Amino acid sequence: MQNMSDQIVHVVKRLRQEVPDCLASGVVDMATGMLLAVETTDNHPSEVLDLLAGATLDLFQGRTVLTIEDIFKERRGVTSSEHYFQEILVNSANLTHLFVRNNQNEDIVAVVVCPKSVNIGMLFASTRRVLKSYTGA
Predict the structure, then answer these.
(1) Looking at beta carbons, which pairs linking 101-108 to residues 24 or more positions away fall under 8 Å?
(2) Residue 22: DSSP 8-state
(3) pLDDT in tens, 6-58
């Protein structure tokens, strides 16, 4: 059986191989705010990669996002600590970025970057399929 670090590296590689037109993939640990693994077709400065982890943390668990979640939980009588936001799609000028929380471990978020021309349905389906095959990553 693979340890979690090996699983994460394997997930990142499979995402790059199996998601159509994937330019980059990575995994962020929300508990530490660290980028655990990344694979990309391009060279990116380390400071940009470090900022990716922080931006992912802000998207899913920034102060305002947590406040919105708390308000909805209160109004709906939900007492669990589960986060509402599970998948976030961001389009930039030329790229599409998909951020997906792991179902088994909410602290793990996979990031996939493709050209903006990617088929969004295939992007979601391929990413979900790869992530579903891993329990810890």
Answers:
(1) 101/60, 102/131, 102/134, 102/136, 102/137, 103/131, 103/132, 104/135, 104/136, 105/136, 105/137, 106/30, 106/82, 107/29, 107/30, 107/31, 108/8, 108/27, 108/28, 108/29, 108/30, 108/36, 108/136, 108/137
(2) -
(3) 889 999 999 999 999 999 999 999 999 899 999 988 877 777 777 888 999 99
Task: Please state, as a whole number, how many other Cβ atoms lie within 10 Å of the Cβ of residue 80.
Answer: 6
Give the three-state DSSP class for 91: strand
Q: Please give the model's pTM, rounded to 2 decimal places.
A: 0.88
Quote the CA–CA distance of 41 and 76 in Å, as a whole number. 44
Closest CA to 24 of 51, 43, 1: 43
E strand spans, 53-136:
87-91, 95-101, 108-115
